[in-house]
Amino acid sequence: MTYLIYPPSNMAKRRGKRTQSTCGKQNKLPINLEQDCISVLPDEVLVLILSLLSIKEAVSTCILSKRWKNVWKQITCLNFFLDELSKTEKIKIGRQVVEIPRTYNWVNQVLQLHQGQILDEFKLCSSSIDCDSTSEIDSWIELVIQKKVRKFEIDLQGDRGVAPYCSHYTFPENLFRNPFGVSWFSRLTHLSLNYVNITSELVEHFISNCQLLEHLFIAGSEYLEDLKVVGELLRLKFLQICDCLNLFQLEISAPCLETFFYDGECRYNINIRVTYAPLLAKICITEDLLFDSTTGDFQLFWNYLPQLVTLRLVLEKEPKLVPEFPELTSLEFLSLSIARINRRSLLLLTSLIEGSPYLHRFKLRLRRSLMGCRHRRSKVISEANTSPHQCLKVVELSGFSGSKHETEVARYLIKKAVALKKLIIDLDSKRILEEINPLRPLSTKIKELEMARKHALQLEKKLPLGGELIVL
Q: Per-residue pLDDT for 374 more than 50?
């Protein structure tokens, strides 16, 4: 099929006059201004296209023509980013210009005008939700869940940072404590609640009644205390729990679970029991779970370490002890995030690498200044086993400052990885330059980064033949 793009009528007239003056007659052009290439497509295709746009862009198409007036009302994705919307709207009343609330009214109008029977995705993001806004959010959720949404996300953290704080919004239980509430979530596969208070009972209600649920993310809930993610028929593949301060017990028995992340602060020594997870392959956890002897029941988790493909460890402080890990025969990617280099963190680093014979990629992130570390703490590196590692091909050092201890770690990894193909050193320049510290003016930061880059470039001559150095 060949589509013709027709010029506007005034252009056609100008072209006709020019042709008439040169050829003595006017060429006739096929003009059909009531049809274009996109508008002739079926509604289903147009809805699919508009669902890929932002809501503001999709709604704005209603002014194109009568053909487009109601197409946007059938879109299957409703993603609201309230911080990007104007909070007030200026209108003129007589000779005065006044401001009226706009954001919530606009969301209400979009949800009320939307005519689609089902939703593939709903997302609400804001960093300015307060106690007076809870009733509005409740009404939005009630409208959305009736459309049997598949992917449901609420993110109220915004730009508040990563530190835990008291959430102003509590997920409404009354909407789901009835048969209609359960049926409305029959298509739910993805549930993500970031800094939303939700009780353990309601989360378990979702788990037991949403048979298609595969992705569960809960962060910043003060009401989460004793949670059971248990079920023989669970399809859950991804589970992440973050910054739930009052959580003290988590039990997991999920036959399809592949990824488990646990991170953030907690007021209690959390007891995590992984009783059944035969497909578990990716884990990210904090040091309190691995190295605090008070979490004895967590030893049940160690049975699954040999089957892991990805392991991420986050150490906020020096571990109390470094356990003897089983051989990680399936591990391909290891990420270790530590606050500072010290004896026990180095023992952990060397033991994990030596115990992972098929490790392909290793990432080490340093999150704090290493000023004040004494040289004797790096003795672990000189005494470490330097037998060659045949599979380690990519090493990444993030937050590299060029200190003597970091350089020794980098040299140890280069010497260990005899098949190293790529060494990536990230100076974390953006974070350092944006960091507000009156004791470190911008000129000092620039000098420190230049010195760190110089030390990083000196490592290139240590790389094995064919190795590549990338400094970010």
A: no
- Is the separation of the CB atoms in 391 and 360 below 8 Å? yes
Per-position DSSP letters for 344-403, written without gaps between them: HHHHHHHHHHHT-TT--EEEEEE-S--TT--GGGGHHHHHS----BSS--EEEEES----
CB 260 within 8 A of CB 276: no
Q: How far apart are CA 387 and CA 106, in angstroms?
A: 64
User: How far apart, in Å, are the Cα atoms of 424 and each of 200, 334, 388, 468, 469?
Assistant: 42, 15, 20, 8, 6
Q: What is the pLDDT of residues 330-366, one digit of tens each?
A: 999 999 887 766 666 777 788 888 888 999 999 988 8
Tokens 């993610």, located at residue: 229
Q: Which of 52-66, 174-188, 368-382, 434-448 has the lowest mean pLDDT?
A: 368-382
CB-based contacts of 333, cutoff 8 Å, min separation 6 = 309, 310, 311, 359, 360, 361, 362, 363
In this structure, of 265-269, 314-318, 433-437, the range with the lowest mean pLDDT score is: 265-269
274-281: long-range contacts, CB 8 A cutoff, minimum separation 24: 274/300, 274/301, 274/304, 275/251, 275/300, 276/252, 277/252, 277/253, 277/304, 279/255, 280/304, 280/307, 280/308, 281/307, 281/308, 281/309, 281/310, 281/330
**CA pair distance 192, 139, nearest whole angstrom:** 18
395 strand-pairing partners: 362, 423
- Tokens coding 219: 């962060």
Answer yes or no: pTM beyond 0.90. no
**pLDDT (0 to 100) of residue 255:** 93
